[in-house]
Amino acid sequence: MAEGHDEFIVNDEHGGVRGIVAYEWNVSPDGKRRVKVRELDAERRPAENGILIDTFGEKLLGVISEYQSVIDELGGVAGLNQTNEAAVYLPEIWSEPQRRADVLFQDGGVATPVPGGTLWTFGDTFVGTIDDQENPKIAGAISNTMAMLPAGPYSWPPRLEYLVDADGHVSPPLVIRADEDQKSLRLWPLAGVWLEDAAGKGQGRVYMFYSHTTVGKGAWNFKGAGTGLARASAPLGPYERLTATGTSGHALTGWPFDPSSLVRRDGWLYMFAPHDFSKSQGPGNGLLVARVREEEIEQPSAYEYYTGPGGHLGQARWSGRLDDAAPAAPNVAGQANVAWNQFLHVYLLTTSSDFGHPRQIRIRSSAWPWGPWSPLPPPIGNLQAPERHGEQTIVIYGASYHPELDEADGRVITITFCRSLKREWALTNPEGVRLDLTGATLDASPSSRDAASPIPTR
To answer: 41 and 108 in one domain?
Structure first.
């Protein structure tokens, strides 16, 4: 009989231990699952409720709403729904900071390192309150929100500090103008970067790309209408939506593509996005890699696109024409997240699933931002998020590796992801998975310890 035990620590808003959810699980030879869950206080004394749930899948008894998502996910956390012992699935990020800012549900979670911490940006955000019975009461929605995660030790849920207005309500960093369609337009945050001023002294600017999207009726009835770039002198804004020069079309959406992640290397900004290469490279989505000099981020005409490997190891070919671009990696759907991992000493490419593999998260590695990309060995490189009890997942999207949540010098990493459920109005928040990379032995390709500094070649 397979069995085990674990616990989930609930932090307060200052990072201290407010309580503990401890659980035991077993799977009998005939496949029947059983889970016992107890709520403990910070001193590990049992709460008055005692056993909150007994027998996997039975109705929750006396559990407060903050723990409900933990219990729902126990199949994955305890290892009941998957055999990957390196992966521990985490509940939704919703906690007291969201409650204070009137945030109920949101998706996204793109991370941008800035002085003092990391910015987390979100797309569509439903706002409202929680009633006395812990039921959400939706009052409205805004298309983008932002929070700061101060630098500090690991905690889950992350201790986010939201951008709020004078009354303490969550406020969008990207504002829809009066002459734009307030009903159908959405401004969804994408990759961002903090760039220091030449004089240094801690001064600089934050840049944030965003998707200019129109929506209609239905869950998936949205259409991209271009990419914009916003700028601020402080991480939490205010943000100015920039006007592109020297481009055709709408001046606010003149940037050539929609990067979902960005890394800095040797004075260049490397940006990554899924892209349909069917017109030029055959069927299927692949990874588009672009770059621009840091000082030219505001100039769309200065961007270059990866067109293939160069003549020597660690080199690549680049073109100023998007139509010349070639996929740096195949089978990239949804979003593409690239970030440096200190433990493996490589870049990690984290991608979401497609409708054919609705709960898959794939992880690949490379010594260079442009590839070549090799999958991490299974099961680490091919995660299968557990299904929520009583639900059906349409697709997982927005997978994002968060180096600011690294533990043990990057040996244990955290990836956030969003989940779309089949049930009508099944709104959710980003979830997470903690992954131990100890078993992620890399293939024979050279590591970036041996990689020369990238040589720009066209």
So the answer is: no
Q: Are 255 and 209 in contact (CB under 8 A)?
A: yes
In a domain, 90, yes or no: no
CB 368 within 8 A of CB 454: yes
Look at residue 306 in the predicted model and tell me its pLDDT: 97
Residue range 56-101, pLDDT digits in tens: 333 333 333 334 344 444 333 333 333 467 899 999 999 899 999 9
C-alpha separations of 408 from 8, 387, 431 in Å: 19, 29, 21
Please write the tens of the pLDDT for every residue from 238-295: 999 999 864 444 578 889 899 999 999 999 999 999 998 876 555 468 999 999 999 9
Residues 56, 115, single domain; the answer is: no
133 shares a domain with 72: no
Give the single-character DSSP code of 76. H
Least confident of 7-11, 224-228, 403-407: 7-11
The span from the CA of 457 to the CA of 359, in Å, is 38
> What is the DSSP-derived secondary structure letter of residue 35?
E
**Exposed/middle/buried for 74, CB within 10 Å: 0-12, 13-18, 19+?**
buried
CA distances from 364 to 106, 337, 350, 377, 430 (A): 27, 10, 7, 9, 22
Confidence of residue 53 (pLDDT cuts 50, 70, 90): very low
Q: Confirm whether 349 is domain-assigned.
A: yes
Q: What is the pLDDT of residue 278?
A: 77
- Residue pair 172/216 in contact (Cβ under 8 Å)? The answer is no
Which residue, among 447, 438, 383, 440, has the nearest Cα to 415 in the 3D structure? 383
Q: How far is CA 269 from CA 169, 304, 340, 402, in A?
A: 34, 10, 14, 18
In a shared domain, residues 63 and 198: no
- Contact (CB, 8 A) for 26 and 34: yes
Distance CA 136, CA 143 (A): 19
State how far the Cα of 380 lies from the Cα of 10, in Å rounded to an integer: 26
Asked whether 273 and 328 are in contact (CB, 8 A), the reply is: no
Inside any domain, residue 87: no
